[in-house]
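Hi V.,

You were right to ask for the full record rather than a summary. Here it is.
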Amino acid sequence: MDYFLGTYECTLDDKNRLSIPSKIRNVMSDTSQKMFIISKDAGDKCLTLHPYNVWKDRIAARIAQLPQSDDSANRLRRILGKNTLDIPMDNQGRIVIPGDFCNYAGIDKRVVIFGAMDKIEIWSPETYDEVAKTPEEQSAKEELKKFRI
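Predicted structure:
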């Protein structure tokens, strides 16, 4: 799979439809994907989009292997079930972001879409600007070193 890269400023229409930038649509086309999984990201107050096949193969498959008798695993299943939906991309390259997801992330009309390798993040511009100013976000050098990349 190619990766999602770049930062894009976009606007939701009156029906909460978001037109996916063409570079992201091209990555989805290359893998014949038209379905995303959208999740509320508890750590950053943003929304994440995973291509359906990535979610299914990398995330859902691992969660399904967790023991049913484990309370933490069951809490994780409930959290993801409550805060995750599948959403199709229409023929015009748009997705509809549910209202409660917009409210969660503080999104009104304007959004910042950020390609984060195998997923896409959707931010309110105000929240994104605050996070982008932090020293941790300004330099990847230490993180690359940490992961020996």
